[in-house]
Amino acid sequence: MRKLLFLIACLVASVYASAQVAYGPVAGASFATQSRSFGKNDKVISSMAVGYHIGGELLAHLPVVGLEIETDLLLHRKGSHYTENGGPEFTTTYYYLDLPIRLNYALGLSRTNLFIGIGPTFSYALSGSREREKNKVEDILNDYNQRHWDIAIGAQLGVRIVGVQFKVFYDLGLINISRNPLHEVSNRVLGLQLGYLF
What we know:
CATH topology: Porin
Helix content: 10-25%
CATH class: Mainly Beta
Number of helices: 2
CATH architecture: Beta Barrel
Structural class: mainly beta
Distance between the termini: 32 Å
Radius of gyration: 18 Å
Order of helices and strands: HEEEEEEEHEEE
Strand content: over 45%
Largest sheet: 8 strands, antiparallel, barrel
Number of strands: 10
Number of domains: 1
C-alpha cells in the first residue's frame, strides 16, 4: 500500500509540475453509511450518520482541452448507526485522512465551469469508536482489530463560478475493513462540498 501511494504521489506531482494549477480550502457535509454483513444470508445497510470534512484542494488543468486532475487532502468524519439482529443500536465514529484523486472533464460556459469526475479515494483511519450505550465507548480500531487503510472508487459532479466551487460526490468503499471472517464492513459516503480556488 505504501509503495502504491508513493508511486501515485510521484505521478500526481509530475502532473502538477507541468500544468496550470489552482488551489484553495474546501469543506462540507458528509452523509455516511456502512454496508454490513453478519453471515451469508444476513446483510444490512446501516442508517445514515452525518459528518463533515475539511481540508485543501489542488486542481491541475491538463494540456488536453477539458481534462483536469483534482486532488484533495481531507480530515473526514465518517460513521454509521446500526443494529445487530434486532439488538440495541450502535453508533460508530471514524476520523479518516482522505486523499481523493479525480480525473475531471470540465465544460466551460462563459465564467462558469461544469465538471464531472471519477477516480480513487485512499483513506487512513486516525481513530475509530463505537458507542453501544451512553457513556460506554469502545476503541473499534484496536479492540476489534479493524483495518486502518481503505480504498474507494468515487464520482463527482460540480460547478465553478469565478473561483467558487460546489460539488456533490459519492465514494463506494472497496475494502472490507473488518478482519473478522464472519463480519464484513465497507464504507459508503455521499458528500456536499464548498470551496474557493485561487
